[in-house]
Amino acid sequence: MTSGKVDTFRISLLPFCVLVFGIFALMIVIYLTASVPIFQKEGIQIYTTNAWKAVEDNPDEEFYGVLAAIYGSIYTSVLAVLIALPLSIGFAVFVIDYAPQKIKEPLIVVTDIMAGLPTIIYGIWGAFVLVPMLRDHVMRPLYEHLGFIPFFSFEPAGGYSFLAAGVLLGIMVTPFASSIIREAYRMVPFTYREAAFSLGATRYEATKILLGYTRPAIIAGILLAFGRAIGETVAVSLVVGNTFNIHPSLFAPGYTISSLIANQFGNAFIYGYMVSALFAAGFFLFVIGLAVNVGGLIILRRYAHAQRG
């Protein structure tokens, strides 16, 4: 009797699973279908060239290449992860091990509030506060003294750049990554701490040991931060510069796929192939997000298997 009830309950949940996977499959189909015209016209060049030629009266002369946007998306997201990861780990360790009890919960509440703020708030703050600050106190000094290094070789005229976008994204994704790492670090059994201290480990050494047990959470935090950063739209479009540019310098303006779609979609319908090109760019972003998540699952499973072995 009980087994029959369990089977009935399991079957009743099946439509929800089918619905979720159906929505996922439908999204892929829609993006692929909408991208077919630009694929037929340009092929793989949509992803391998840096060009954006919109011709309203003659669709045959249109040509779109989103390589600069792909480059900018990956560049700014990697910068965001490099900034957010040490901040997230440091914040998690401080809150759990070092923060006084009176300020521990307020700190956690503040980070949760930051995670829930509308992104336009970050974007406006980034455009009016972060960009001028980075331009005057970071970019110009580095350009003047270390301009011979490719990363600092672009003159920061306005300050809207890959660096500004990366720093802003790093600030935005830190609360998401830190919440995962913090809770994982909190759940490490207290006996592990006692064992580390009983063996003569310093607080620093004990922290390194305990962080080893949270490695899956750190990986998950990295993936969450990267996925959140690469898909951000409004905030990035306000600070990245919105220029079709492929340059190694942190101070160069650029584009991301999300900001490209946000800026161009409003008038894309008056062109013959621009809508299809934007869908193709979105499909590539979809593939990147899928690849990152699948890669993360593989890494986590291998780590779990190694721990059991």
Summarize the structure.
The chain is mainly alpha-helical. The chain has twelve helices and two strands.
Describe the structure.
The chain has 309 residues and is mainly α. Helices cover 75% and strands 3% of the residues. The chain has helices at 2-42, 45-48, 67-98, 101-116, 119-146, 162-186, 190-198, 203-213, 215-230, 234-239, 257-264, 274-308; strands at 50-53, 63-66. Strands 1-2 form a two-stranded antiparallel sheet. α1 packs across α12, α3 (67-98) crosses α9 and α6 (162-186) packs antiparallel against α9 (215-230). It is globular. The mean pLDDT is 88.
Strand-pairing-aware structural class = mainly alpha
State the separation between the terminal residues, measured CA to CA.
39 Å
Which word captures the global form?
globular
Instruction: Kindly report the spatial arrangement of strands forming the biggest sheet.
Output: 1-2
> What is the arithmetic mean of pLDDT?
88
How many DSSP-defined strands? 2
Global Rg = 23 Å
- Continuous helix count: 12
Order of helical and strand elements: HHEEHHHHHHHHHH
**Biggest β-sheet, characterized?**
2 strands, antiparallel
> What share of the residues does DSSP label as strand, in percent?
under 5%
Low-confidence stretches: none
